[in-house]
Amino acid sequence: MKRKTFEDGLQSNLKLDPAKRYEIIHQSVKSDPWKLKCMICVEELAELQQRISKQVREFDDKVGLMEEMADVYICLSFLEQIFNIKPDEMQKAIDVKLLREKGRLEDEFSV
Fold this sequence. Notes:
By secondary structure, this protein is mainly α. It is 81% helix and 0% strand. The chain has 5 helices and no strands. Helix 2 (18-31) packs across helix 4 (62-82) and helix 3 (34-56) packs antiparallel against helix 4. The radius of gyration is 17 Å and the shape is globular.
């Protein structure tokens, strides 16, 4: 996406409702072969990785970071649809990981 278009969108009052987001993601997943969509996701993850590296090196481009993060969030939704992962299943997986993180934090701060 062109940087100016993204920045203009950030300044607008745009807000899609969850049903519209789902519809767009569903149509996008249907529009391409699933393997192609998966490869696009891999590429978007790599772009986020690069952007994080630049942030760490004090490049300080919050808008660029947000753009790459948004792409990855969208890709995660693509993957959920492609592989038929239900929202409650994903939330459970997240909760399991967060509980592990909580335990790690408690161990770290109890020393």
